[in-house]
Design goal:
- The protein is built from 6 helices and 14 strands.
- It is α+β, with helices and mostly antiparallel strands.
- The longest helix has 22 residues.
- The protein binds one DNA strand through loops.
DNA sequence: ATGGTCGGTCTCCGA
């Protein structure tokens, strides 16, 4: 079973590149971030025609997450628990039925810049809520994945030029400590486990010819529960997508899970 | 050399 994450940076802008990648990569399930669309305006027919069930959790203008799945989904939940006043669409969760149930959490962790400030406070509070959800799922001993744009550069080796990110919300010590504490509960970073760095990136800025100079960072992550880590058959980063026509600034990251 | 690029949108804000 192939499960992927892809920050598409706008569904309207990616209406050609996303189907092209789906046809080539053929994932069973993909978690999308930054759909930048309300649910009613999402062009679901395009993807249903390719055999995908589409489940969106959008909002106007910014953010927004979604699932596209060729396998049946159940228990679909929208929104990260823990703050009823949070109106940002950054979390979607479902159980995918592939012989045995696997819970999939698609996430778009807040960017947090500028730091310090209210946006950084929101990032840290959001991470605390995510940790609570992860603790609950671990306690239940469920098979689950958390995957998406985590907006965290875990280590210096995950940036081509770490010095540039020294004061950035994606790399501040408190960001990395908070993220690491969550992983240390028992989650496996699938890409790091199978692709030891340095030089493994998932994002290249549109600015400053970052792609041409390979000035990338690794911020799109797939975190596996212990039960899923045992079934990890392969991981990949579809880096070539960044060099295609009208690319997103992120590329797809995927895992292959044994049946 | 304090710039540069995208996407979505009440032409600036978020990344």
């Amino acid at each position: 079973m192939k499960i992927a994450t892809f920050n598409i940076n706008g569904i309207k802008a990616r209406i050609e590149a996303l189907p092209a990648w789906l046809n080539t990569a053929n994932p069973d399930l993909v978690c999308l971030q930054e759909i930048k669309s309300v649910d009613e305006a999402f062009p679901r027919e395009v993807f249903e025609a390719l055999g995908y069930q589409v489940e969106t959790h959008g909002q106007k203008g910014f953010n927004g997450v979604a699932f596209m799945s060729k396998l049946p989904l159940s228990d679909i939940r929208r929104g990260l628990p823990g703050d009823g006043a949070d109106e940002q669409s950054r979390w979607i969760e479902a159980v995918v039925d592939a012989g045995r149930p696997l819970r999939v959490c698609g996430l778009y962790l807040p960017n947090g810049n500028p730091a310090p400030g209210p946006k950084y406070d929101y990032k840290l509070a959001w991470m605390a809520r995510m940790e609570t959800r992860v603790r609950d799922l671990l306690a239940a001993e469920e098979s689950f994945l958390c995957l998406g744009d985590c907006n965290v550069i875990p280590q210096a080796m995950d940036a081509a030029r770490p010095e540039v990110w020294a004061t950035d919300a994606l790399y501040l010590p408190e960001t990395r400590e908070t993220y690491r504490r969550m992983l240390n509960l028992g989650l496996t970073d699938a890409v790091r486990a199978r692709m030891p760095g340095p030089g493994v990136y998932t994002f290249w800025d549109y600015q400053a010819v970052a792609w041409e100079r390979n000035h990338g960072i690794r911020i799109d992550h797939i975190l596996c529960s212990p039960q899923v880590a045992d079934r990890l058959d392969g991981v990949g980063i579809d880096k070539d997508v960044r060099g295609g026509d009208k690319p997103s600034d992120h590329v797809p990251v995927w895992v292959d899970i044994a049946a």
